[in-house]
UniProtKB/TrEMBL annotation:
UniProt-listed Pfam families: FAD_binding_6, NAD_binding_1
The organism's taxonomic lineage, starting at the top: Bacteria, Pseudomonadati, Pseudomonadota, Alphaproteobacteria, Hyphomicrobiales
Family: Belongs to the ferredoxin--NADP reductase type 1 family.
Domain of life (superkingdom): Bacteria
Catalysed reactions, semicolon-separated: 2 reduced [2Fe-2S]-[ferredoxin] + NADP(+) + H(+) = 2 oxidized [2Fe-2S]-[ferredoxin] + NADPH
Cofactor(s) needed: FAD
Name of the protein described by the UniProt record: ferredoxin--NADP(+) reductase
């Protein structure tokens, strides 16, 4: 490697991959994304998460991160918050290309196709960094084999925080591999809550008052045709879950697939 590459001060723990940072992109003072090399033997299902850490201590701190890249990608992408005093992110936000990132070898999670029964329309509802697992799923051909219509919603406090999702949708629609699959079938809805933009309000409000469905040209949640994946803060998950349950949808898991699944987005 080049002379700028980080030297490891501590041994790599058992069952952990040590991968190189390929690129880092900062979106706001609270958000950044990064890409790392993918171990040859590493397998995962789009939508799953892994434990990520840094080699800056004898016993590294690991945190759950949804893999934002699709299962077919040669690299692994992550979308992260920056917390000034966050045990991991205060250091992780400073990574540079060539640095080492640690990753536990097992991927897991419930935001996967295996946990949902077949349906017609897939809603992926996210706030903040909760968009990460859906960044993987919207780029996975299986998503378009399983559903006629794929809807991604992303709600953030401010307009600048929507940038990652906007770039994702643009890149997905223009992708030589899956762009064609998404034609007329991938819908994106973004809203902000603390700064003016085209659509404003919490996703819960916009579901309850019907605004979301009106803009998308769809009907309110219907168990016969709709499947829902939810990812965001604990409070957001609880509130969105209550709304889909009110519409009669049942929560699924890997062992018992059903109509909707939830996962908490990484926080600090
Ligand atoms: P708000 O600005 O009204 O708090 P955060 O960065 O705190 O995770 O928030 C990300 C987005 O999720 C914000 O737009 C925030 O709206 C929204 N949000 C926070 N809590 C909830 C909730 N319980 N239900 C729906 N949306 C929520």
């Amino acid at each position: 490697g080049s002379s700028t590459e980080q030297k490891l001060e501590f041994p790599i723990p058992a069952g952990v991959y040590a991968e190189r940072v390929i690129s880092v992109k900062h979106y706001t003072d609270r958000l950044f994304s990064f890409r790392i090399t993918r171990p040859r033997s590493f397998r995962f299902r789009s939508g799953e998460f892994v434990m990520i850490g840094l080699s800056n201590a004898e016993k590294p701190i690991f945190r759950a991160y949804s893999i934002a890249s699709p299962a077919w990608d040669e690299e692994l992408e992550f979308f992260s918050i920056k917390v000034p005093d966050g045990p991991l992110t205060q250091h992780l936000q400073k990574i540079q290309p060539g640095d080492i990132v640690l990753m536990r070898q097992k991927a897991t999670g419930t935001l996967v196709h295996d946990a949902l029964l077949p349906g017609k329309r897939l809603y992926m509802i996210s706030t903040g960094t909760g968009i990460a697992p859906f960044a993987s799923l919207v780029r996975d051909p299986e998503t378009y084999e399983k559903f006629e219509e794929v809807i991604l919603t992303h709600t953030c406090r401010e307009v600048a925080e929507l940038k990652y999702g906007e770039e994702l949708i643009e890149a997905t629609r223009n992708d030589p591999l899956i762009g064609e699959l998404t034609e007329g079938r991938l819908k994106y809805f973004a809203s902000t809550t603390r700064e003016p933009s085209q659509h404003m309000g919490r996703i819960t409000t916009l579901i309850e008052n019907g605004y979301l469905f009106k803009v998308l040209g769809t009907e309110p949640f219907n168990r016969e045709v709709d499947r829902v994946m939810i990812c965001g803060s604990m409070a957001m998950i609880k509130d969105v879950k209550a709304l889909v349950e009110k519409a009669g949808l049942k929560e699924g898991s890997n062992s018992e697939p059903a109509d909707f699944v939830v996962e908490r987005a990484f926080v600090g």
